[in-house]
Design goal:
With about 200 residues, this protein is an alpha/beta fold. It has a single domain, classed as NADH:ubiquinone oxidoreductase Nqo5 subunit (Beta Polymerase, domain 2), CATH 3.30.460.80. It is about 25% helix and about 20% strand. The chain has helices spanning about 5-20, 35-45, 70-80, 140-155, 195, and strands at about 50-55, 60-65, 85-95, 100-110, 115-120, 130-135, 155-160. It has a 5-stranded mixed sheet. A hairpin with a 5-residue loop joins strand 3 (about 85-95) and strand 4 (about 100-110). It starts with a helix and ends in a 5-residue tail after the last helix.
Amino acid sequence: MHWSVADERRDEARSAETSRRTEGAGEAVGVEMPAAVATVMQVLRERFPHLDVVHKEDEWVEARVAPDELPTVARFLRDDARLQFNFLSSIAAVDYVEKGFEVVYHLLSLPEGRRKLILKVTPAGDRDNPEVPTVTDIWPTANWHEREAWDLMGIRFTGHPDLRRILLREDWVGHPLRKDYQDRRPVRERQFKEDWIGRSG
């Protein structure tokens, strides 16, 4: 899963709107906090008091995690009986160009149903070699998501058991969803169905 420019602008607009309505530790002003949200925020702040944890809209909780701390936080989220975030539904890679890359994880607690969490991680390394630890050993669904993020955005997930392209050929040069990507292949002549009508096989 990857965000387009329109998705990015919409997300930034939502974040700005949320920021205007938040204060203190990040809870939305005038919005009643559901019990599921309160539980997630309390448990996370008790176990990882240094994390930036906020209540977003639609009962989502968002937390920013350093890449070297991701495996520890992820395993806690899955294994803690109060949280039970046992399903990773998607991984999105975002290219903010000057601000660098961001990897976004959407987590659900299937036993509890209403518990939803977003993890945001800024990769280590520079633009040529952004790195984030794999979470395939914690959530197996991360396997193909991480391969897609590597294939199209060039995010290297260290420790991944089989980090290779999943959509493009292995000999493809570059990562085409990066905003600075340039397709250097020769321009192909555009063809239409009408050009082939009547041609012999």
